[in-house]
């Protein structure tokens, strides 16, 4: 073997094996959420100029599955395919309680026994929770499904965050939230330069993080049974720059201050002043991330007369001061990373050695080959 060939061989050996993801499609899954999860993986491969990720779509028997928009999608195969998966992501959509079958539950439980990372997008969390695989885990799900999941699976720690990464579980709400979750996972595994490059390719003005929450319509939370509370919140939202006093708010809707306090505690689990502060700080966060306004201007626009007081409130609520938020730094509370082997294909197996089945060809290789002529191909240099 020549010196050049040996050098190339050694360099190739240093490259970790690509991670393999299996996307389990439930009947009436949301096609938009599936694309939001897979496209960042495709772009990661393109920008790196090599296969960092490969993916397969699966159904119980390998037969076509209907998306929520009526399109019929033929997956790559059945859940019985001999795949060495690093991660399984359940793709849900409309009516997850009806879509989850016994076969889904059994297979997901078998994947958990193999120590594979598990995820859910849109309402895919429902299947994981039904299988008992989200007990004690922070879990995100589309807001439309949130109340039903809290009722059905009290052991899962439901949150309104866009996505949640808790140890070896990763769940995202719906729409474009899977894109943000995948960008976060890619950034942790291969560096911020790659995740930022993917974001630029998809014309994302910013990458949303784990501390970003879904904006849940209050009417969905309360229904139409509390019109006075809805009116008060609307007044708060319309008066963030010059907050209205609680006495004045109560007068507007013809209730007493005490009644106002009780309404918020009963239906929103916080005091009216705390809720008002949350609205102002959430607005401040949007301005910090999406405008060039100075911190002083942001504080003033959100009803804070003192910049130090604004910074103190912001830090207590979000875990980092406004200046660090603008710089894109992480919160003070470090994320809990799953303990996973660096070589994704080296999974826990029984002591008896089994022959490794031949792996099917992933669509990732086709996509990577098609991207070779693109100007951005291999434009991001990785350290590994």
What Rg is obtained from the alpha carbons, in whole angstroms?
Answer: 24 Å
Regions with little confidence, pLDDT below 50 for 5+ residues: 1-12, 332-354
Number of domains: 2
Largest sheet: 7 strands, mixed
The CATH architecture name of the largest domain reads 3-Layer(aba) Sandwich
- In angstroms, what separates the terminal alpha carbons? 24 Å
Number of separate helices: 17
> Could you please say which CATH topology of the largest domain applies here?
Rossmann fold
- Order of strands in the sheet with most strands: 5-2-1-6-7-11-10
- The whole-number mean of residue pLDDT values reads 85
Tell me, what's the shape?
Answer: globular
Name of the level-1 CATH class of the largest domain: Alpha Beta
Class by alpha and beta content: alpha/beta
Helical content (DSSP H or I, runs of 4+):
40-55%
CATH superfamily caption of the largest domain = Class I glutamine amidotransferase (GATase) domain
| Secondary-structure element order, N to C | HEHEEEEEHHEHEHEEEHHHHHHHHHHH
Q: Give the percentage of residues in beta strands.
A: 5-15%
